[in-house]
Write a structure and sequence with these properties.
globular, alpha+beta, 4 strands
């Protein structure tokens, strides 16, 4: 999906994640450790920015409850595409997972959906939204 003009002023790549989800927060920490140049930026889906992006994309409220979103260049990626495309901004062997993008999304996304539906039960839920360490705050938009 193309990025709407109203969102073109946002820094990119910008990764939206569920700030209450332990799995999602761990993935953000994983990304931070492998992106020393600070290219990848982050925002919580619960933030005002998350709500604004949903509205601009015309997505129903609650979409980001189970869907990760990546704004990258002039494209918007969701679900397994967002996760896999975010890896290209990281260093190390994790980039070797990118060929999984060759598998059609209709085959990848059911696994993504299964994990998304059960993430709180399997990995836990934080009592409050993820707060970055002070030295990483500049990587988070609308915290």
């Amino acid at each position: 999906m193309k990025l709407p003009p109203a969102l073109c002023n946002l820094p990119r790549p910008l990764y939206f994640f569920d700030g209450y989800c332990v799995l999602c927060s761990r993935f953000v920490a994983f990304c931070l450790a492998r992106d020393p140049d600070g290219r990848l930026k982050f925002a919580s889906t619960q933030s005002a920015l998350g709500e604004r992006v949903l509205a601009e994309l015309g997505l129903p409220a609650g979409t980001l409850d189970r869907t990760i979103l990546l704004l990258d260049g002039d494209e918007v990626h969701v679900r397994s595409d967002a996760v896999l495309r975010s890896l290209r901004h990281l260093r190390g062997p994790v980039r070797w997972l990118q060929p999984l993008l060759l598998i059609p999304a209709f085959l990848r996304d059911p696994l993504y959906d299964l994990i998304a539906r059960n993430r709180y039960r399997w990995f836990g839920r934080r009592p409050s939204c993820f707060v970055p360490m002070p030295q990483m705050r500049n990587r988070f938009i609308d915290v």
